[in-house]
Design goal:
With 653 residues, the chain is α+β, with helices and mostly antiparallel strands. Helix content is 54%, strand content 9%. Helix 17 packs parallel to helix 26 (602-643), helix 18 (467-480) runs parallel beside helix 21 (500-518) and helix 18 (467-480) runs antiparallel to helix 25. The radius of gyration is 37 Å and the shape is elongated.
């Protein structure tokens, strides 16, 4: 029924909001001023350590400055107890002593009919329980024992048994004064179209009662007991009492635990929910064989702000999660979302609990992925980003998907976050393509493909992995071959060396070469001996690190022992310089991404795309050059070995 606004105002006036809220929270004595109607507590809607939940008794309004939850008496009861609007108003009106308006005749008839259906369903529940405990229920009890259900659990969930007879329940209910029309309308029996007698809907099944938010039995789920009996699971049909689109199994039991812990777990079947609850995880519910509906999504948010949905890790489970995304996205709002836990393939919650107890199952729950991550994984799976058109198509698809989110603030945050994620994926994708091209080129030359970086393995040409070591090797080779400084003066002058000591040494080396030019000579005429003499005093220690009288340099770059050509050394030095520059470019991308956070603007987004593309291009070129040098290094060593046997260790200077 509809309630006039003046009646709701009278309830709010007569019943202090602090009295309603105070049943769920403990007031903070330091911040609260009860005499002024100003009260503070830790929020009942999210976990927090310091009180940010405020109740204004004078205005009859509450607000959490942490999660944003707000409302009045009615909203608070609906959110914390899962009651419907009429149920909430009726309860609060009774507490406030406010009489409700007389109901019209049609409403009275409808309520009486519902009451009759509820009584029939409750009688059926009692009958199923009695049959479960009787001799006829032996097979059902054995099945429950195999599922590991304890006597306490069987009692708490009112597990029952439906006999295999065609009309055993119907005869029992008729004998108890329930007419056949009520039995059929309650979903307990079916009536054949050919006029034959009604038949029980549930036969030879383990029976699990389904309750509404107030804990009243409104329907049943039946699990087949005989081999080959179909369907394996059978639920009550839609009735005036039961809507499977709106209800969640076990919600009335899970409510208190969910509000206490701030979380609720959603599993696929009611027997899974029972097993999880028995393991001590009380905040658990199950859907009733339907895809997620808006009613169920909002009912879950009344239990916890970010429920965790557990799906099987197989294709069917992942497909179900992907379908759920499209239903959830339009409804998400600030502080309210979902997380997804994908269980190991072939395992259900019951299996995990049997293997490792509640801790094993909770480990999977704690590893749940946020809605945004699962959405991105779905959209990026198999996506090709190798052309501008394909990248644009992906961006368009994601933009349309995020456009379904009604909450403007959340939609804006999603757009910013997906730009960052796309940038990261593009960077990685381009790097993978570059590596694949290099492997293909290597394969076309008749040799087996090798992973990136493998071409220079060994002591002859491998660039050091530690960045500082790469810097030292470059400087050492430039000291040994100062003509390279002249040939690549500008690039070396701007080389982003990490150490200030190394930069100072590099600058001094550039000065030595420049002085030679100012003295009337050519850069190429500068000898290694002159460089060493000029730098030995002020940079004695660094010279030992980067050159070591030639022996240290040969230990770092073993191929010098085999007297490679000047052209080879030059290309190797340029390879090392490229390695340094690529590393700095990667750091720039990472720093820009980190600085942007979750509010990336269009200019930053374009900058990230450009840097990612540049990084991928240079990384691909680097790997190709690395492989080419490795080929030459093998030939140099082979040619030298044919003329003489000389080990690196015995090479000396």
């Amino acid at each position: 029924m509809r309630f006039p606004e003046h009646l709701l105002d009278e309830i709010r006036t007569r019943l202090p909001l602090s009295e309603v809220v105070g049943r769920r929270v403990t007031w903070d004595k330091r911040k609260s001023q009860p005499q002024r109607g100003d009260l503070w507590a830790c929020c009942p809607f999210h976990q927090e350590k310091s009180p940010s939940f405020h109740v204004d008794d004078r205005k009859g309004f509450y607000h959490c400055f942490g999660c944003g939850a707000s409302g009045d008496h009615i909203r608070f009861v609906m959110e914390t107890e899962g009651l419907s609007f009429p149920e909430t108003v009726e309860r609060l009106a009774g507490e406030a002593g406010v009489p409700l308006p007389a109901r019209d005749a049609e409403s009275e008839r409808r309520d009486m009919r519902r009451k009759g259906l509820a009584e029939a369903v409750e009688l059926a529940a009692l009958y199923f329980e009695q049959r479960f405990r009787s001799g006829a229920g032996r097979e059902a009890r054995e099945y429950a024992e195999r599922r590991g259900l304890s006597p306490e659990t069987l009692h708490a969930f009112r597990i029952g048994y439906a006999p295999g007879d065609r009309d055993a329940l119907t005869r029992h209910l008729v004998a108890s004064g329930v007419d056949e029309a009520t039995i059929v309308e309650a979903g307990l029996a079916g009536r054949p179209e050919d006029g034959r007698a009604v038949y029980d809907r549930f036969r030879n099944r383990l029976m699990i009662p389904i309750h509404d938010a107030r804990g009243r039995v409104v329907a049943f789920g039946g699990r087949a007991l005989a081999a080959g009996q179909e369907p394996k699971y059978l639920n009550s049909p839609e009735t005036p009492l039961f809507s499977k689109r709106a209800l969640l199994f076990n919600a009335h039991r899970a409510r208190e635990a969910a509000h206490t812990s701030g979380s609720v777990v959603v599993v696929e079947g009611y027997l899974d929910a029972i097993a999880v609850s028995q393991a001590g995880i009380r905040g658990v519910v199950a859907t009733l064989g339907t895809a997620f509906t808006e009613e169920q999504i909002r009912a879950l948010w009344r239990l916890a702000p970010e429920p965790v949905i557990c799906f099987d890790g197989d294709k069917a489970g992942i497909a179900a999660a992907h379908r759920a995304i499209d239903r959830i996205l339009p409804l998400v709002e600030a502080g309210r979302s979902f997380n997804f836990a994908f269980l190991p393939e072939g395992k259900d919650p019951d299996d995990l609990i049997a293997d490792g107890g509640a801790a094993r199952f909770l480990a999977e729950v704690k590893a749940a992925a946020p809605l945004f991550d699962v959405m991105m994984e779905r959209e990026l799976a198999g996506a090709r980003l190798d052309t501008p058109e394909r990248r644009a198509a992906l961006e368009k698809r994601l933009d349309e998907l995020v456009g379904t989110i009604r909450d403007a603030r959340v939609s804006r945050e999603y757009r910013a976050a997906l730009k960052l994620r796309l940038s990261e994926r593009l960077w990685r994708s381009q790097g993978e393509r570059a590596a694949a091209r290099g492997q293909q080129q290597r394969g076309e030359r008749g040799r087996p493909s090798e992973p990136p970086g493998a071409a220079l393995n060994g002591p002859l040409t491998t660039p050091p992995k530690e960045p500082g070591a790469v810097d030292r090797l470059v400087l050492g080779l430039l000291v040994e071959h100062p003509g390279l400084v002249a040939a690549h003066y500008e690039r070396i002058a701007h080389l982003p060396l990490r150490s200030e000591r190394h930069r100072a040494f590099r600058d001094a080396l550039l000065d030595v070469v420049a002085d030679a030019a100012h003295g009337g000579g050519e850069h190429e005429d500068v000898a290694a001996g002159e460089v060493l003499a000029r730098l030995d005093g002020p940079f004695f220690q660094i010279l030992r690190e980067v050159h070591g009288g030639g022996q240290g340099l040969r230990r770092a770059f073993g191929l010098l022992t085999f007297h490679p050509s000047a052209d080879f050394v030059e290309r190797y030095v340029l390879l090392l310089i490229e390695k340094i520059e690529i590393a700095v470019l990667a750091e720039e991308i990472e720093a820009l991404t980190h600085a942007a956070g979750e509010t990336i603007d269009e200019e930053t987004w374009q900058r990230l795309l450009a840097l990612s593309a540049e990084h991928a291009r240079r990384e691909g070129d680097y790997q190709a050059d690395e492989r080419a040098l490795a080929d030459e290094a093998r030939k140099i060593r082979a040619a030298y070995g044919a003329g003489a046997t000389l080990s690196i260790e015995a090479a000396g200077g």
